[in-house]
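User: For a benchmark we're assembling, each entry needs the component sequences followed by a predicted structure for the full assembly. Here are entry 17's components. Please fill in the structure.
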Amino acid sequence: QQQVKQSPQSLIVQKGGISIINCAYENTAFDYFPWYQQFPGKGPALLIAIRPDVSEKKEGRFTISFNKSAKQFSLHIMDSQPGDSATYFCAAGGAGSYQLTFGKGTKLSVIP
Amino acid sequence: GAVVSQHPSWVICKSGTSVKIECRSLDFQATTMFWYRQFPKQSLMLMATSNEGSKATYEQGVEKDKFLINHASLTLSTLTVTSAHPEDSSFYICSTRGPRDTQYFGPGTRLTVL
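Assistant: Structure for entry 17:
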């Protein structure tokens, strides 16, 4: 049973546009929601993370929006750049465990 | 963020041989490390949780006798793939557990079994 559903699977955005990736979770005990960025042949890098006590967190061009009642959270990349082209994974964790449950990933391509 | 290293970054071996992958936490002590494998264009699949000084906890379907994990110090965990076969070819990634459930990932090790 997949506990974190991520969409879309792939996304093409023009340079300067907004990239939006969505995730939904099932386990209401999750209390930590990170996003990771992965380039080909590299390990994932923590991009930004949020906890349920806030509805939005912004770091530079990256914003997480969190909707606790809907059990959804999303990543917004403003002013998308070709260098942002990578695979993005959402994850959920906490719930008394140190483990993270990952979404299936979104391959983002930012075209000039 | 925390720095995690892995060695080697890539390895090619013959079927039936064993391969050891090291994961080091460079700037803080990690009592808990995680091992993942990732097939091309797929998500990360947790294989096991490595706890310093105790036995690793394996996820369902992961053969503990095939994927040996040792976490002998607070900065080093090793994954040994024993009697490797072509189907074990994958990208193996470790991570360390940081403050407040944060996980920092290593750069990964590409294993190719011929």
